[in-house]
Amino acid sequence: MASSRSVPAPGWFPVARAADVGTTPVPVGAGGQAWVVLRLRPGGEVTAFSPRCPHRLTTLTAATVVGGQLRCAGHGWRFAADGRCTEVPALGPHAVPPPRADLTTPWAVEERDGWVWLAPDRTAQQRPPRAGADTVAEPVPALPPPGGPVLDNLAPALAHAWHPVAAADQLAPGGWLSVRLLGRTWTLERRDDGIAVAPAAWGVREREGMVWVAPGRPVATDLGATGVGRAQWLPPLRTATPAAVLLDALLGPGRQVHTLSGGFTGTWETDDLRVRTEVAAPFQLLRRVEPAGGPVRWELVLLQPEDGDCTRVHARVSVEGRVTRPDLTAAALRLQAAVSRLDPADRGRGLPLTPRDEVHVATDALGAALRTTLADLVVAARRTDQEEDDDVAAA
Ligand code: FES
C-alpha cells in the first residue's frame, strides 16, 4: 500500500480502480498529493489534473466534461488534456487565457491490471508495476490551503463591523431572541428604551428592517440608498459556505470599479442588461439591475457569519415604478434562484486575500476589489485593537 507523505517519493502510485473512473472527476491521492482523475471521452484514456481550479480554487470534482475538455463548475473555464486553459468565457471567445490559468498535470498516468496508476514526477520506471492482491489506493489527502491569509467566518477582524442578525419584526416588544454571530450566541431583548444585547457588544441597532450587532467598534461603513419601490424579503437561507466566499460568488463580472471608504462600486453592461453593484464591508451587497425593456430591480443581500461552517443569507428585492405583485414575485424568485444556486463546490474555509493565490482576469474587477476591501478591514480592525490596547495600558 502506498503511504501518505507530504512530499511524494518518485514512483507510481495506484490511485483508483480503472472501472471506477469515468467522465466525472474522481479525487485521488498519490504520494500525499491530491489529484483528480477522469476520462475526457467515454471509454477514453485516463487524464489527471491538479485538484483545484486556479481561478477561484474551486475543487474540480464538480467540473464536467464538455467536448473532450474539462469545464470548471465555477465560471466555466475549460482545460485541455495537457492542463492548458483553453477558454475563459467571461473574456469572450477570442481571448487568450493567461499561462497561470493552466492546471498542473502529473508526469504520467496509466492503466494497468485494472488499476489507474499515477506518477507525479519523472521516475526511472517507464511503466507502472504489476498490481497484486494487496494493491490498494491511498486515502485522498486534504487539499492544500492557499499560501496567504484567508478570511473565514470567525476572523477576529469581523468583530469590528455591523452584522445583520435577525428581522426586526421577529423581536416583539418585551420579547427576546437568541442569534448566532461569529461563533457565539447573542441574546437580544426589546425593551422600552431600545434593544439590549448580551453578552455586551459595542452596539445594537435597527436598519433596513433588520437588527444589527457590532461586537466591537466598527471600522466599516454601510451601503448608501438600498432601493426604492415595492420590496419583499426572501425567506432566510443557511449555507455552509463562508460569508466572504458566498459574497464573492454573488458578485458576478464587473468593470469600472470605484473604491469607496470601506467598500466599492462597479458596473457591468451587456446589450440587454446594465448592473450596478455596491459592496460595503464586510458582507453587504446591493445590486441595481436594469434589464432592457423590463422593470428596474434592486437586490439587497446581507450575510450573517453565524459560525465557521454556517452563514445566514438575508435578501430583499424591490422593483422601481408602478409594479404589480407578479412583477415583485418574479424578481424575488429570480434572486432566490441566484442565491440558492451558489455554494456548488468546496472553495475552502475562507476567501484568500492575497492576489497571487488565485488567477484574476479583467472581468474579475469586483472580486479583486472585494479582496482588497476585506484586507483593508483586517488592517483597520488590527489598528483599532492596538489603539484600544494602548488606551487600556495608558489608563
Ligand atoms: S472557473 Fe473555476 S472557479 Fe472560476
Q: Terminal Cα separation, in Å?
A: 63 Å
Task: Please state roughly what percent of the residues sit in beta strands, choosing from under 5%, 5-15%, 15-25%, 25-35%, 35-45% or over 45%.
Answer: 25-35%
Number of domains: 3
Number of helices: 3
| Count of β-strands | 26
Listing every helix as H and every strand as E from the N terminus to the C terminus, the arrangement reads EEEEEEEEEEEEEEEEEEEHEEEEEEHEH
Instruction: Determine the fraction of residues in helical runs and give it as a percent range.
Output: 10-25%
Alpha-carbon Rg, integer: 24 Å
Rounded average pLDDT: 90
Secondary-structure content class = alpha+beta
Biggest sheet statistics? 8 strands, antiparallel
| Ligand catalogue | FE2/S2 (inorganic) cluster
The gross shape turns out to be globular
Walkthrough of the structure:
By secondary structure, the chain is of the alpha+beta class. It has 3 domains: 107 residues, Rieske Iron-sulfur Protein, CATH 2.102.10.10; 178 residues, 2-Layer Sandwich (Alpha-D-Glucose-1,6-Bisphosphate, Chain A, domain 4), CATH 3.30.530; 56 residues, N-terminal domain of TfIIb, CATH 2.20.25. Strands 18, 19, 20, 21, 22, 23, 24 and 25 form an 8-stranded antiparallel β-sheet that branches. The protein has a 4-stranded antiparallel β-sheet with strand order 5-6-7-8, with no helix packed on it. Strands 1-10-9 form a 3-stranded antiparallel β-sheet, with no helix packed on it. It starts with 12 loop residues before the first strand and ends with a helix. It is built from 3 helices and 26 strands. Helix content is 14%, strand content 35%. The chain binds FE2/S2 (inorganic) cluster. This is Rieske 2Fe-2S domain-containing protein. Keywords: 2Fe-2S, Iron, Iron-sulfur, Metal-binding. InterPro entries: Cholesterol_7-desaturase (IPR050584), Rieske_2Fe-2S (IPR017941), Rieske_2Fe-2S_sf (IPR036922).
